[in-house]
Structure formats: structure tokens, C-alpha cells
Amino acid sequence: EVQLVESGGGLVQAGGSLRLSCAASGFTFSDYAIGWFRQAPGKEREGVACISSSDGSTTYADSVKGRFTIPSDNAKNTVYLQMKSLRAEDSAVYFCAEVSQWFGRAPNQNSANVYGFWGQGTQVTVSS
Which of 34, 42, 68, 72 is the most exposed place for a label (fewest CB within 10 A)? Predict the structure, then answer.
């Protein structure tokens, strides 16, 4: 059974940094795509970033380009969301999602429908 566990959320001041982790288990950690999404109260879910293990390609929402990156550590079966220069509008619950047997370039970061498994989320709060 595929399991995704997010961690690393918390409270940070505007301008600060956080690194979220998405620890994956239950599938062979190759040929996957993993995406990060976020949802703030009263707002729709937003795709933030995603990565394809096939070619290492990534996609990012315009709102986070230059501030967020999505590195992976296949030895640890973990994908990260490295966030810097955080803003109050980055406050949300952050989720990771996974699709296996993904070959080729990373999907658009908003393509939530391609993912079959989701984590429970981790809260990020940025104080201004």
C-alpha cells in the first residue's frame, strides 16, 4: 500500500525558510511523479511544484518560482519542498501526491487528477 507522510511544517516569520518532506513507501521509488499542493482556508487547492523521477524535470507555480524547489533523495524515498522567502500568502496545508509508472517529463503542477495517492498534509503558517 502506498503511503505518503508529510512533515516539516510549522510557524515561520515572513522571509524565512522551511523544508517540507514527503516520505514515501509501498512502491518502488523509481519512475514516479510526485507533486506538492497546498490549500488555504476558503481557497481552492493549488498546485505548487512537481518532479518526475524519469528525467528529473520539474514544474512550478508562477507564485513560487525562484523561491521554492523540489529536490528528491531516492535513497531515502523522500521528496522535499524547499521553501525560502516565505510570504504570508504561502500559509496553507501542504500535501504531497504520487503517481507510479510515470515516464517522461513532470506533469503540470496543477494536474491533480494524475495522482493516485495523497498524504494527510502538513500545516505551514507564515506570520507577517
Answer: 42
